[in-house]
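[audit] Reproducing an earlier prediction to check determinism. Same input, same settings, fresh worker. If the tokens differ from the archived copy the diff job will pick it up downstream; this log only records the rerun itself.
[audit] input (390 residues):
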Amino acid sequence: MAAYVFRLPDIGEGTAEAEIVAWHVKPGDRLEEHQPLVDVMTDKATVEMTSPVAGVVTRVHGEAGQRLQVGAPLVELEVEGEVPDGGRPVAQSPAVAAPVVAAPVQADRPLASPATRRRARELGIALQSVPGSGPEGRITTEDVERFAGASAPGEGVTAIKIIGLRRRIAEKMEDSARIPHFTYVEEFDCTALEALRERLNAGRAAEQPKLTLLPFFMRAIVQLVPEFPQINARYDGANGILHRYENVHIGIAVQTEAGLVVPVVRNAEGLDLWGCARELATVTAAAREGKAAREVLSGSTITLTSLGALGGIASTPVLNAPEVAIIGPNRLEDRPVAREGQIVIRRMMNVSSSFDHRIVDGYDAARFIQELKRMIEQPEVLVREPESKK
């Protein structure tokens, strides 16, 4: 028998650390090779780690929400025979290996992190009274908060530890909030666009996807990028470098059960209207089903965000940093408007947008949105094939 340590591997793309999202094993479990061990999250995606060997789990390292460096121990196992390649021996004997377990914990000093002990002191709670839900009975901060809530009935407070994708979203929003935003809202008359969309959908082939509004916005953005190259860009603020892109990789903000993610339609400049609709449907479906690959969830150069019927009158989109522009169509509705001295009913939409004011001046942002408005209100130009296909 031998002891084997499975360490957090280098997942790629320069990842230096990963966050534990969920454990699939506990000490005492017998594993087969390739059986799931733990889900970890990098800046790009959630990755399921599987066991490279068969054996019995003797120890797991870390709890949900904890971040580990690449190379740090994740799981210790007792395996038959010699230690497999890549696993560092922990204890080994010619006869029977001693189980790899944590050092005994004194009854008067429960297993807990310094942060958890500090929180318990703040709440006036003795850790000896708190049931631990972590590995080997470790008491987590969430356990302390839960116990505090149980000790004070009637307060109606639930403590929820923010981990995984939700924490990534929170961190990204904090980063974006530090950027000086310039937000601009304009009213678009989408009457002609809706009439065109209705005709195209009525005549579409069986293999063609149904057109929503977003493919038209995608085509308009693509056609405007040559005139506004600073819009299709990413800003490296730490090094003071703006990267402008000839190719247009459009991020699509998608709400999933786990939270907000942004899958990417790559090289939109080479897609016609139907191609945009097809790729849009593919990447958003993969994101909602949790099947989007890491490369689908990164690398956007400009983002579209829309709540559809829930879009409201206006919004203030938050930049998907390090991008410098985000466009947010709001709710489409019939409104009375003045046309040539007459009050008529038109299909109207407010379009919200935000820009990194360090890079994009207000004048240029307004020009871009006015040109976008012109194209959406004269949508026939959006049906033309892209130059790369001619």
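[audit] rerun output stored. Observation attached for the diff report: The radius of gyration is 27 Å.
[audit] end
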